[in-house]
Every structure is written in structure tokens, then in C-alpha cells.
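Hey all, sorry for the wall of text incoming. These are the two entities for the joint prediction.
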Amino acid sequence: MSQPSDLSGVRLHIVTGKGGTGKTTVAAALALALASGGKKVLLCEVEDRQGIASIFDVAPLPYAERRIAVGPDGGEVFALAIDTEAALLEYLDMFYRLGKAGKALDRFGVIDFATTIAPGLGDVLLTGKVFEATRRSEAGRPTYDAVVLDAPPTGRIGRFLNVNTEVAGIAKVGLIRNQADSIMGLLKSGQTRIHLVTSLEEMPVQETLDSIIELEGIGLPIGVILVNLATESELASGDLHAAVRSELDETRIEATLKEAGVEADPPVVAGLLELARQHGERVMLEREQQTRLEAAGVPVVALPDVDGGIDLGALYELANQLCASAEF
Amino acid sequence: MPRQSQTGRLTRGNKPQPGRHTPPRVGPLAGRLADVPVLSVDELIADQDVHIIVCCGSGGVGKTTTSAALALRAAEHGRKVVVLTIDPARRLAQSLGLAELDNTPRTVVGVDTSKNGSLDAMMLDMKRTFDEVVGSHATPAKAEQILSNPFYQALSSSFAGTQEYMAMEKLGQLHAEALAVGRWDLIVVDTPPSRSALDFLDAPERLSSFLDGRLIKLLLAPAKGPARLLSAGMSAVTNALSKVLGGQTLRDVQTFVAAFDTLFGGFRARAEKTYRVLRAPQTAFLVVATPESDALREAAFFVERLAAERMPLAGLVLNRVTERPTPGLTSRAADAAAERLDRLDDIEGLTIALLHLHSSRLSRLEQEQGLRRRFAAAHPQVPTATIHALASDVSDLASLRRVGESLAV
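and here's what came out:
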């Protein structure tokens, strides 16, 4: 049911996930990982959130490809915040030489109309720009070795990528339609993979599984599931089960604590047991969710839990983990 | 600056563009890392003058759960509540008795009604809400023309902003019904998980600026009358449009806009009315966040935006806050003990693991408290309530009740 996980020929990596699961962070780490072998990678965002700028701690990105990271081996990451309005004007100018009329369109509110009211058009423009960057070449070789797209969340991803059907309702012929067809060609090809970021909680996992079915139904190729924010456990499996059932050996723990020089009065021991119970419960739930994910037939890649939130260092740590995983 | 970049995507004036003017941040210019003022949720839900509670916040922070828990608690404290949810998790929806997307409020079974309260819940169906608006404001013939137009169909089912418009529309309807029939005295609204979560505030203005735009006049001109209305510039525009979209599409757009012309006016008037209701003192906004730097940064944006719009902010709800573990064991003591045990032979790892759990819980707590103090220093006027992180998912009335209890402590 799912696509082969071989990612070697993939040039466009689309990263989606439910809000709050770290989609932008993972997309950024993936761009770094892909560039780490001396490659040139473009990282795009499409939601006007300036998430990339905030993660890399740089000034807001303009509608232009800016180099934001360089590696010792010559690897480079460029970033681009794609803006519907700017994409439309560029598009009109590039394909229809509507330089002047383009400006007139703006005066009449057509740009507003196209980017906000006309359904699907905005998405065609955004994916169109990604398409252009992926296909662009200089001196016979691709400008970018890979393009990573920080895509809209799972709730919107199917609609966002299914540009063909989206514009089908409004444009049966015409240039927009042709454009949508070529974009769809790339998205459905072996050069594209869609990766889903999730935490091990019920709702994000459910959305991930639903999205996989939806995207496969459209004929879009799934890459991997990236599990973020998983709880790590030092407890042995048997202890975890005992902790959940509140059956851990209280007297032994108390004795061990005393040995360690901790004044183990009853509230301290009870507190530790309660902590263990909550932890065990969380880990069990996460394992259940992990099993559900694994049943989807898509490779599952675990990301390390980065202590103290995401900063630049943590981003590089994540990138390193991605490089080390068998999938990338 | 992410704070500014979160403003309404489609409100062009607020759009974050490098080099363009962005609104300044609003708040005290100097503040102490003070204690966080407490938001009393029970006082809020007991206040009979509060008729609407709006929960807003960025995606993934638990808005829907918070709305549902608050609504349940209010109902069990004697309010007659309706909760409007947008896209709840399947099991949460089931626990509220919502089997499918269904645009009518249904009574939630299993609620303690001993204080004469009640709880109804509904899920927003944006397409149906839109269809109903069309149906109730156009003649049957015209309504049919609109409903079958491909532009309308796409707009009503997939346009990214439609959910916000429709959430506003539904809130307006529920409010009118509450006033007229008295079935409810409190409406709790969960806001759509949009890209910029305050889009619903921008909905009326966006609509107005669109309607007043020259595009509408331009598109209406060929449908209504003589081509003499078209200046040279305008015909260049229509030519360009038909080139890009195709002639049939342009005709579809024109029919759509013509058919919608009359409808939009009433729609705008109602959206503006709902906006005024939101501004009135009977409304209370709650900003939902988690104690993480990104979520709090977004919360700061919400708080400032609400203040700028003069919307009545009741406070901040911090979800998934780490609970303080047993007193008497500092994280340093726990780490030291674990280290000592590590050096001994024949010690099972269990106790060491427990000590590590304890100290990492404490350090997470400290980190969260630091973030909260900083937030409070910048926004000292925002009282805060917290919901402790639960080990398990919230998926039934009992766990919603626990969330409500945690919220009220």
C-alpha cells in the first residue's frame, strides 16, 4: 500500500504534520541534513509565518532565496518564504509578460481576489514556485540538489497538494490549468516524497494515519513518518508495567534511597511512585501509538527528544540524527 | 519578528513584509519578573453577565479540549451552555455525543444537571452553514444559481478563510437564538486552527474591503451592462484575467459575483454585528497556550492583538503545565543520590531511573516557570489559569471534568 522508502532519487521533500508537533523544526533539520554532504538545498515555507527565520534566528525572510547556513564541506542551505502575492506577480511577469497589466491588476484588487477569494489559486501559486525552484537548472545541472518544503499542516495538506483537482472546478482549460497539471506531474513522481511529523499522542497520530490514506488516495508518494517529542524511558519494561499498576516494590526503593543517603520519608517515596505511575502511563500510551504508526506500512524514523526546547544547537543535533538514520 | 508575522495573513495592512511598517508591540516598557496573577475560572463561569467565552490560541495547544472542559464545568455549575467546536479529536467528539459533523447543537448525555445547568455541543460544518446563509438570504431561484456555481462550491468547502467566516456566522446565530429563546446563557467557542488564529477577527474587514474593491465593480460590469463602463485599463485587466483563467472561468466568476452581490451586503452587516458582540463586556476571551517559548510567543501576540482591538481579554489558560512533584527533594539532591547509587554495585536501576525522572520533572518545571515569569513581566495585566499535563489523552466526560477541576484550582 505504501511507496518504497528509497529516498536517493528524491529532490522534493514535503514536510507536513499536525500543529504543535514540530513540523517546521523538522523541515529545517532535514534541509541541514540533506545539505551536509556538500549539497545545495532550498528550504521553503508557504504560510507567512516566518517560522524559518525564527528557528535560524535571522531577520524575516523576503521573497528571495537567501543563504542561511553553510557547512564546512561546502554544503549550503538557502531559505525562501513564498508569498502568494509576490508569486502571482512574478508568475504573471514571467509567463505572460504582464509587467504593466500586473500592476494594474493590483490596483483593481485582482491580486487580493486571486490570493484570497479564488479557491485553489493561491495554492497553485505556492506549489508552482516550489515546482519552479525544484526544476530550475543552471549550466545543465539542477540549481538545487534538493528542495524541502515546510508545508501546511495535516488538516490542509491533501487539499494543498491536490492542486489539480482544486483548480479543476474553476478552470477547465487555460494556462492555470496547464500549470496545475505540470505541478501535479512532479508531485506524483519518484522525485517527490511527503514526510509526516507526529508526536506519539492520539490526535496527531490519527491525523497522520488519515493523511497517509488521503495522500495515497490522491496518488501522492509518502516518504517516512518522523516521530518527534517521544518520551524516553530508563525504566525496564517490567518496571514500567508494575509502575502503571502501582505495584513497584516500595520497601526496596525506600531501602535503596537510604543507601544513597536520601531521607526517604513516606511522602518522598509516594511521590516517586506517583511520578513513575504517570510516566509509565504516558510511555504505554506512546507505545500504543507507535504500534499504530508502524502498522501503516510506512518507515518510521524516531527523532531524539531535545532537552530544553529548540535552539540552533538542537536543530543541528536533529539534523545529525536524520543523517544517521537509515532512511536519509 | 515572529510576533508580527502572525497577524492576519489576508489583511494586507498587517502583512509582515520586510521593510514595511509593522505594528509596534503593546505593553509596559519595563516590568518585573513578578508572580503570575491568578485567573479564577470558577468566578468567570459563575459570572451571569458573561455570555460568550472565546478560546483562541495557536494550533496544537489544546483549544478544543479547554473549550469542552470549560463548558462542562460551567454546565455542572448551573449555566445553560452551548459549546461550538471546530474539528475536535474523534474520541473527544464521541464523548460529547457528536458522532459526525452536524450543524445542530445536541444535548450532551452524562452531564451532572443537579444545579439546573445543561450542556449542548455542536461541531461546525462550514459548508452547510454557508449554504444556510445563502438559502435564508436569497430567493430560491437565486440560491440555486449560487449553490451550483463552481466558484461558490469551491469557496464554501475549501477556501482557507471560510471556516473563520462561518465560525463568526454560527456564533452570531447561536447568540441570536440564545437571546430570543433563552435556551442558553453561555456560549463557549473554540476558534478555527487557522494559520493566523485571529483570522476570524479580520473576517468582516476583509469582506468589506473585498466588496468595496474595484474588482467587484469590474466583474459586475460586463454582466450588468454596456461595455462603455470599461476603461482601457479595465479591459486590459479582463483580458489578462481571461488569458490566465480561461474564458469560461471568468464567466463563472462573473456569475458568482453577480449572484453574490446582494447577499454579501447582509453577510457583511451580520459579521460586523458579531464583531461588536465580541467587543462587548459580556464576552470573555481566553488565550490558550502551552508553557513553551513558541506557544507563549504566539500567546503574547494574541494578547496584544486583542488589546489593540479592545477585545475583552479574561486571561491566559496554560495547558499541559508540569505538576510539581513531591516537596522535600531538590533536583540537585536527586541527581546526587542517583550518582552515588550509580557508583555502587548490585543496585537495580529502578531507583536511579526514578530519581532521574524526578529531577528532569523538576528542571522542566523550573524552565516553565521561568518562561511564565517572563510572560508575566511583559503582560502583567493577564491573569493565568493552568491545566496540569495529564498522563493520558482526554477522551471522555470524566477526563474533561478532571481538566476542568485542574483549571479551577
